[in-house]
Amino acid sequence: MSKPYRSGFLFVYKPPGITSSDLVLKTKRLLNQRSVGHTGTLDRFAEGLLILPCGDYTAFSQVFLGKDKSYFAEVIVGLKTDSGDPDGVVEVDERETILPRFESEFPISRLEEELNRLTALTSQKAPKISALKVGGKRQSDLVREGSVVEEKERPISIYQVAAVQKTKLGFSFRIHVSSGTYIRKIILDLSEKWGIPLSLQRLVRESIGDYDLKDVKTLDQISPHDLRNWKEVFPLPTRIVDDAEKKAVIHGGYIWDKLPKPVENGFYILDADEDTILAWCDYEGKPDHIPYRYRKVFFDPAAKIMFSK
Fold first, then answer.
1. How many of the other CB atoms lie within 10 Å of CB of 95?
2. pTM for the predicted model, two decimal places
3. Which of 21, 91, 136, 244 lies 20 to 30 Å from 103 when distance is taken between CA atoms?
4. Which of 78, 123, 122 is CA-nearest to residue 99?
5. Among residues 288, 249, 228, which one has the least CA distance to residue 55?
């Protein structure tokens, strides 16, 4: 008996103007999915790559949340909002006077030098205007209500800054960063450092880990046929089982022989069809008396059906 939904990874281009949560809800309705996760949200104004694990594949969401990201950013010079993006409250708008000053003080050589210095950063404070929760409320709401909010610092890595260019309204660049890095906070910090109002005009996520925008579709283009399976997106070593071993696995028992060699993120136990995942397993963190630990057993005892292909 098959499940009433399909599982897989959906690669979607998020347009500007909607939240990542809106996109997830629209995807659930469009594909008739019981559950759709995400692997790192984008701000409302931002656009670009979202990887949405659907169905049983939501179990793999956490793996992708930690992947590095790359972005294309366009910055307006002379304009500053409280959030550092177009959705924020305008604090300074001096574009007519500041842009000529910027052109004079920041020739392309200096601009490249300043932006390349970002690779020396090892930590970042989250922007005050953010969706982070403080005491159950959005941090941005608390800040705009006048509450004092502690800026939490977190470790980050900026691997590369490239393709720095001057634009009609300011400048643009590409940046490759670790997970959890706020690009708009980088711009806010540069604004303070340079003494020049700056704000993001556009932000495009171009990659998550090894996956880029190639063959990525917009919401109005996707269908269930666009779901990608584990072999394409999250391959791991496998152990194929027979019927007796399968019964042991789905009832919490263990397989003791012919196990794969240890690799990052563990391995799969597959059904005899060599495609259906029965369990996701890992050697890391297991007690000594068992051969591995189960990160997830894909079995619904009430429905008596297995993980979908």
1. 16
2. 0.87
3. 91
4. 78
5. 228
Query: Are 129 and 155 in contact, with CB atoms under 8 Å apart?
Result: no
**DSSP structure string for 90-123:** EEEE-HHHHHHHHHHH--HHHHHHHHHGGGG--E
Q: How far is CA 81 from CA 71, 74, 168, in A?
A: 20, 15, 19
What is the mean predicted confidence (pLDDT) over 142-155?
70
Tell me which residue has tokens 């959005």.
138
- Residue 179 domain-assigned (yes or no): yes
Number of domains into which the chain is organized: 3
| Residue 303, pLDDT score | 45
Residues acting as catalytic residues? 43
Q: Is 16 helix (H, G, I), strand (E, B) or coil?
A: coil
Whole-angstrom distance, CA of residue 259 vs CA of residue 246: 14
pLDDT tens digit sequence for 208-224: 999 999 999 999 999 98
> Quick one: 190 and 91 in the same domain?
yes
The band of 128, judged by pLDDT with boundaries at 50, 70 and 90, is confident
The C-alpha atoms of residue 273 and residue 265 are separated, in whole angstroms, by 22
91/183 same-domain check: yes
Q: In a 3-state reduction of DSSP, which class is residue 245?
A: helix
256: CATH = 2.30.130.10
Same domain, 76 and 177: yes
* Position 6 confidence tier, pLDDT thresholds 50, 70, 90: confident
| Secondary structure (3-state) at 41 | coil
> Do 106 and 48 belong to one domain?
no
Do 76 and 186 sit in the same domain of this protein? Answer: yes
